[in-house]
Every structure is written in structure tokens, then in C-alpha cells.
Amino acid sequence: MPPARRSRTASPSPASGQTDLPALHLTRFLPYRLSVLANTVSHTLAKLYEKRFGITIPEWRIIAVLGGGETMSAGEIAQRTAMDKVQVSRAISRMLDSALILRESGDTDRRKALLTLTPKALAIYAEIVPMALTYEEEVTDALSIDERAQLDTLLSKLQARADQLAARPAPAGAQAEAAGE
């Protein structure tokens, strides 16, 4: 499918009185399409584990990121999973209550709590990973082997570019707006 095209419309915006504004075709807009795809994939996979294990998408993401035996802080988990810190904090609270993770103070910084999976969470991880990998295979079956490799390359390029753009300082007007000025 071709990318969203920027076209001009002759209709004025009621709020601004401007004419000749660019049109946005949402169903062709890359950020929208990626979001819809990601949500569809995440929610379909979640149906496989939510009812069986009683965990949410954020909880699964935390289990997945810690499943390799890593120990991380909540901030590191938020960064690695691209989840909001509040969302991570809420999921961690539920997981502590459910005995899925352990929280320990860091050796070098006592203020930084480190999180690890409990044996209960590791057992969940061991059961979900094969289901997740099977689902990934089912989704990508729509692509040839070459297309899968190309998709991987393209997604890596897009992520690297998005990371570059995210690291740019905001324009002066946007900074003032964000500060409530």
C-alpha cells in the first residue's frame, strides 16, 4: 500500500478560518497504521495468556523483558518496553501482590529498586514464550522469507530514525506550549 499522500483541500478550517490545509488520510498515515497493527497483534496475543495466567499486556511485557534472567529497575523496564512509567509502576505493584516479581535494593544505589522474576513468573514465561513464537510465525506467514528479512531491516531503520527524531530538541514554540506558557 502506498504511503499517506499529502494533498491540499479547499475547505476552510472552522477554528482557524484557514483554507488550503493539507489533508490527512488516517488509514494511510504510517504512525496510525503501525499503532493499529501493534495493538491488533498485542491484543490477539493477550487473549492467549490473559485468561489462563491472569496477567495483563504490561505484566507480560515485564515478564518478557526479565525472562532472560535479567535484573532491572522500573525505569529500565519502562525504557526497554517503551511503556509509560506509570503503567510500569502499576503493573509492578500488581505483580508484587501476585508474587510474580521480587524487588530488592541495588548494591550501589539503595534508592534504585531492582526487579527479578519469581519462579512462578518464570514458569509463566516458559509457557507463554512458545505460544508467542507460534503466534509470531502465524502472523508473518503472510510474508515470504525474503519479505520477513526485509521487514526486519525496514523496522530497524524506522526505529533508528524515530529514535533520532525523538532525541531532537522540541521547537521553541512547542517547548513554551508544553510548559503551559
Secondary structure topology:
Layout: E1 7-8, E2 22-23, H1 30-53, H2 57-66, H3 74-81, H4 85-97, E3 101-105, E4 113-117, H5 119-140, H6 145-167, H7 172-178
Antiparallel strand pairs: 1-2, 3-4
Helix pairs in contact: 1-5, 3-4
Outline the low-pLDDT stretches: none
- Estimated structural class: mainly alpha
Beta-strand residue percentage:
5-15%
Shape: globular
Distance between the termini: 41 Å
**Count of DSSP E strands?**
4
Whole-number mean pLDDT: 87
Strand order of the largest sheet: 1-2
Order of SSEs: EEHHHHEEHHH
Q: Tell me roughly what share of residues is in helical segments.
A: 55-70%
Calculate Rg over CA atoms. 21 Å
* Major sheet summary line: 2 strands, antiparallel
- Number of helices, where a helix is a run of at least 4 consecutive DSSP H or I residues: 7
What does this structure look like?
This protein is mainly α. 59% of the residues lie in helices and 8% in strands. It is built from seven helices and four strands. Strands 1-2 form a two-stranded antiparallel ribbon. Strands 3-4 form a two-stranded antiparallel sheet. The two termini are 41 Å apart.
